[in-house]
Amino acid sequence: MEKQYVPAEEIEKRVHTLRSEVAKREWDAVLIVQNVDLFYFSGTMQNALLFVPLDGEETLMVKKYRERVQRESAIARVIPLNSWNDMPALIVEHYGRTPQKMGIELDVIPAKDYIRLQEIFAGVEIVDSSSLIKAIRKIKSTYEIGLMKQAGEIGKIVFEEVPRVLKEGMTEIELAGILVAVSMRHGNQNYLRMRAFNAYAYSWHVLSGYTGGVLSYIDAPMGGMGLSPAFPVGASHKPIKAHEPILIDFGICYNGYQIDETRMFSMGELPKRFKDAYRATREIEAAMTAAARPGVSCHDIYRMGWEVARRLGYEEHFMGPPDYKTRFIGHGIGLEIDEYPFIAQNHDYPLEEGMTFALEPKMVFPEEGAVGIENTFVTSEEGVEQLTPAEETLIEV
Amino acid sequence: MEKQYVPAEEIEKRVHTLRSEVAKREWDAVLIVQNVDLFYFSGTMQNALLFVPLDGEETLMVKKYRERVQRESAIARVIPLNSWNDMPALIVEHYGRTPQKMGIELDVIPAKDYIRLQEIFAGVEIVDSSSLIKAIRKIKSTYEIGLMKQAGEIGKIVFEEVPRVLKEGMTEIELAGILVAVSMRHGNQNYLRMRAFNAYAYSWHVLSGYTGGVLSYIDAPMGGMGLSPAFPVGASHKPIKAHEPILIDFGICYNGYQIDETRMFSMGELPKRFKDAYRATREIEAAMTAAARPGVSCHDIYRMGWEVARRLGYEEHFMGPPDYKTRFIGHGIGLEIDEYPFIAQNHDYPLEEGMTFALEPKMVFPEEGAVGIENTFVTSEEGVEQLTPAEETLIEV
Question: Which ipTM was obtained for this model?
């Protein structure tokens, strides 16, 4: 387990960056409340809050359970917290004063807790720290990229299993379950994390034939049937048939870090129109990755994907059926699967070295099926490096 | 799929109950924003909000995607919503006026969205509807109990698989993965839902030997090692050995409805102290269920569990190590796994017919292991009925 702990120098760097961003905004402090942000800035996901003042040492206030926090976190100052009500007193005791202006992640903290913190910190101006935190987290360190590469290696093992287990008549969810089992044995935590409210991520986006053309609430080219209206996305009870496109979009999370990846399979030969469309998505991806490098705007990469899709004659099918196109072709990924950068319309900021994102050019043929490729990339000094090494050829079993 | 849709009479009853509770409080309306509450009151989990006025027909306002909403939901009035900003105008258009006092689930809506809704509904008093909604949802209908029974049947299949696949040296997470695969094949959605902020539920709480004594952030007698500090609960990479207690706490979610269940296994004979302790947990459960019936206070059932544990000499081990006892022995369960009622200290309200809850008397031996039983029950007219039929005997493979 020891090696799984986030190295002290990572935590120091992250907290240092946080503090300089707080200084730029003339705030006095941030209070980290969400578990993923807490993990990022402290290395632990136990029940705790992290107080980072502009001046003075950062403090982990732990509700449960301190021994484990001290083992997992490189933060030196770890104190017990019986109740949120005690926070102002604990802060005054150590720092001499409460902050004037304090950031909290208002994009994720529930309203009820926000109202309670406003009462507890009466007189403190509470501001939204979420965009600041997302901006810091979007640039990955070598350490973080290394974990994403390990996630990519697990993905390779998962996709290699498909031709061994795929059988006519097996349901999408049965295949999905087998792949989940393989992934877990190799360290996938089987729980993807998403920041958006009401959103939930899952690995098992296994769609075959017509389910690839079924839409759902998610901003994705295809939603799938899912198991029921209570989980209306991803793999369903539909049996998989021969000559259908089988699209497997499978996310892996290793030590908290995620990759997202899609590969195509079929039993027997896949009809030519699907093969051609799949080849087109690979061509679109190749054009986008050839253009992607630090300084290039995400919007421009997005536009380039669309240009190639149009040139190849896939305007109707690209990124969803005509009235339901997604607003993006790629999304940032790391501890959460909806991070910056978005390769999307109106995302007019440049790629930077260390940004990680998944590109997923996909084609939808309503009532027939979907095809597409997805890989996760890190922006390097000169271009992008692929973190998902699974074989990309269509596998006809 | 058709049969999976929530029947119209269920939706009508639920909305009717909601409206009468709104009337009692002298509010004008509720706006349902969270996906699980939306599913409960409308039958769909697509991207939509449900407006329920005191006078007038309820309206589903759909961001994406209306065709599927109309198929899944028994709510008759379904209108498109381009932006949250349009809601007041849409409401005035149909109902003639905006509400004076409107409930929103402040326990789950993010602060940022709450602040935005306050701006959008300027002049409307926004109140917290969460306790009202939780109170309605805690009483299950025959239809809901039927789905939980089907979840229980899947649990039985999962636990029956354990002796077939358990092998010395296999890791906790490998065993967990195999069971997840079996459960998914039979319809488990492999995604448990929890309402609390920063909390996440998972099926694969597979603990063997010393990991059963490892604590984590969760309010549970044992947390387990988990795969890393980024998922510090449940199954780990530890190989399972002979003569260790193997505790498998596995949740199942079928059509949105969950059950929670724990069974005990070992490879070779389990040492007598663990066997005795397991027998004690079954005795505690039997005493609690014999007492449980409508009108009996949850606190009294909780106290009875503790009395039996003390009488049998397990005060030190029951519900966690000495300084880290959980505050509950049972929790309500349904669409979320942290529903009412809690069989806990200070939960001094009576059981009512239709309440469903999991009881989980467990014993922890730090650094050695954990044992325990867990079943899900529904409160019937005369007592409780068990929804989780898997064999309860310790299985020595």
Answer: 0.97
Interface check for A258 against chain B (CB to CB < 8 A): the answer is no
3-class secondary structure, A346: coil
B118: exposed, middle or buried (Cβ count in 10 Å: 0-12, 13-18, 19+): middle
Instruction: Identify the residue among B34, B66, B116, B190 best suited for mutation to test binding to A, counting A beta carbons within 10 A and taking the highest.
Output: B190
Burial B172-185 (b: 16+ CB within 10 A, else e): bbbbbbbbbbbbbb
Q: Which of B43, B185, B253 sits opposite A177 (nearest CB)?
A: B185
| Cα of B147 vs its chain's centroid, Å | 13
Nearest to A217 among B45, B181, B219 (CB): B45
Average pLDDT in the A68-90 region? 97
Taking CA atoms, what residue in B is nearest to A186? B174
Closest-CA residue of chain B to A193:
B200
The CA-based dihedral angle spanning residues A70, B227, A52, B117, taken in that order and rounded to the nearest 10 degrees: -140
Over the range A263-295, which residues count as b (16 or more CB within 10 Å of their CB) and which as e? bbbbbeebeeebbebbebbbbbbebbbebbbbe
Closest-CA residue to A107 (of A125, A130, A127): A130
Residues of A in contact with B231 (CB under 8 A): 45, 189, 191, 253, 256
Q: Which of A329, A319, A334, A173 is nearest to A252 (CA)?
A: A334
Half-sphere exposure of A207 (CA within 13 A, CB side): 32
Chosen for mutation from B73, B119, B225, B228 (greatest number of chain A CBs closer than 10 Å) is: B228
DSSP class per residue in B302-314:
HHHHHHHHHHTT-
DSSP helix/strand/coil, A70 = helix
The enclosing H or E element of B164 equals helix B142-165
What pLDDT, in 10s, does the model give residues B42-99?
999 999 999 999 999 999 999 988 999 999 999 999 999 999 999 999 999 999 999 9
For residue A306, give the H/E element and its range: helix A298-311
Domains along chain A? 2-136 (3.40.350.10), 142-396 (3.90.230.10)
Q: What global pTM score does this model have?
A: 0.97
Q: Which residue in the set A5, A114, A216 is minimally distant from B68, CB to CB?
A: A216
Q: pLDDT grade, residue A2 (50/70/90)?
A: very low
Asked if B6 and A255 come within 8 Å (Cβ–Cβ), the reply is no
Q: Which residues contact B195 (CB under 8 A, 6 or more apart)?
A: B36, B107, B108, B336, B338, B339
**B168-199 tens-digit pLDDT:** 999 999 999 999 999 999 999 999 999 999 99
Contact status of A233 with chain B (Cβ, < 8 Å) = no
